[in-house]
Amino acid sequence: MTYNKYRTHNCGQLRMENVGEKVTIAGWVNSVRNLGGVTFVTIRDHFGVTQVILDGQEAPARESVVSITGEVLERISKNPKMPTGDIEIKVEKMEILGACNKVLPFEIADAENTREDLRLRYRYLDLRNPANHERIVLRSKLMQYVRNYMHNHDFLEVQTPILTSSSPEGARDFLVPSRLNPGKFYALPQAPQQFKQLLMISGFDNYFQLAPCFRDEDARADRSPGEFYQLDLEMSFATQEDVFAVMEDLMGKIIKDFTGKTVPAKFERLTYADAMRDYCSDKPDLRNPLKVVDLTEGLATSEFSVFNGKTIKAIKATCADKGRKWYDAMTKFVIDNEGKGLCWFKYNDNALSGSAVKFLKEEEQKYILETLGVQNGDSIFIIADTAPRATKLISTLRNKLGTELNILSDDFKFVWIVDFPFFEEEDGQIQFSHNPFSMPQGELDALLNKNPLEILAYQYDLVLNGVELLSGAVRNHNPQVMVKAFEMAGYDRSVVENKFPALFNAFDYGAPPHAGCAFGFDRLLMFLCGTDIIRDVIAFPLNKSAQDLMMSAPSTVTEQQLRDVSIKIDIND
């Protein structure tokens, strides 16, 4: 391939068949080794690294950008770890295109071991590290792969608005003041939910979009504050099964083509009720074989004060080689996660021992052993607390034990969580438990005749290795059902008409049954890259405090800019 005047080849291109050719490459000075009269320099660009020989010339500073012209030679000491490791270039001409005049804030090769605030402040240097660079390359490849798949399966790509109205549901909006409409604000979309439903009502059949979404929420390892991307799709005349078929096929192909592994053609399914019963989580990591067992029925009336009147959850695990310090560390882990403590027991030689065995009656010990199916060599971990806290803590402990005991399989474990409750009760008030736009199973008849807390929704999540990757639903397309559902949650018809005017009015003009979902593009990329930090797969991410340290954003603006949008700042220190 012929390039412009700066290079005839890139730095990952030259091989033995190029020996004897006169070539020009360009890139960054990656490393310098001075061996007396001869200096070996490696040059790095987007495509790879090539070694060059300086014979008497002065080596430029590392990370300077240079153009090198010379003859390709066969290397005497070859490097099998480099694709270009069989050759090197003897430099005849060297031009410095962009000198590195400052001391590097960190070593490029050691960027991943540098503290994050420094990396993000100099993100353009951080991305020169080959591992970090490759993640962004993989991001581009995955985005193109997804687009090709959707186009090839008759999905139409449509861009929905970035400036829209504020939503009363979900996380906090990012608000944008309107200069032409003083005192009024746009909101950046948390998701294109209403727009994609309106596209179905507009007569488009299958829609998709790699959509930017904006939510003003706190950062987590798997959540980027501010902005993230998701694959959004919607299908007309579709059921839950139609959405599952598309996503199972797409996910299976992505895993195979990007990792070489295979996953089942049909993903496992768990109802929400079963997931909460067996794992105390609606996003269980199924690589972990441990299950949770509820012991409340047999122990809640125990004279042991820790158990009495509490919800009691237990896990059985084999950890015969662990000593007292390890069990104490597990107890501390529970306390550090806002628990009151942990009861643990060992069962060896047909005898139970542990932190609280002396407080349990013989029949209570027998109940524990039989209910959990305990065998010699097993350990038991019990948490007793209020129902919400016990549920949360035992799930957290299950994840911890999976890691500590090294029992997580090296697989991609997908599971659909289905049949979410449509409503839940809080402080005696019925409210939506998930997505108010979902269709209740049984539709209007269920809303009119069933106990609200027994109504299930056509709502589903796809979980991968304990991370919620996708959420979706069969949508409510019936205005009567929507009004009744909101009425049961404490909102009268005027709320629906005022908060969702376009969607509500559109339903009265003939709306097809439709269903869809959205999966977290950045989260999926995390799995493919083998990283636990979502910021690693975003070119220019915000930090944990939603700040861009490189661009100094967010920043103050001038008084004139504020006047233009009719805003006054009133900050109380």
Question: What do these coordinates show?
Answer:
The chain is α+β, with helices and mostly antiparallel strands and 573 residues long. Helices cover 28% and strands 26% of the residues. It contains 16 helices and 22 strands. The protein has helices at 116-121, 123-126, 130-152, 193-201, 240-259, 272-279, 296-299, 324-336, 362-372, 387-404, 443-449, 479-488, 493-499, 501-507, 521-529, 559-564; strands spanning 22-35, 38-45, 48-55, 65-74, 87-98, 156-157, 175-177, 185-187, 206-215, 226-236, 268-271, 292-294, 311-318, 343-348, 351-354, 378-385, 414-418, 423-426, 429-432, 459-464, 467-474, 514-520. The chain has an 8-stranded mixed sheet, with helices on both faces. The protein is globular. The protein starts with 21 loop residues before the first strand and ends in a 9-residue tail after the last helix. The model has no long low-confidence stretch (mean pLDDT 94).
Name the helicity range. 25-40%
Number of helices: 16
Unreliably modeled segments: none
Biggest sheet, spatial arrangement of strands: 6-9-10-22-21-20-17-11
Query: Could you tell me the mean pLDDT?
Result: 94
Taken as a percent bin, the fraction of beta residues is 25-35%
The largest β sheet comes out as: 8 strands, mixed
Q: In whole angstroms, how far apart are the ends?
A: 61 Å
Q: Strand tally, please?
A: 22
**Protein structure class:** alpha+beta
Q: Write down the oligomeric state.
A: single chain
Radius of gyration: 30 Å
Q: Please tell me what the overall shape is.
A: globular
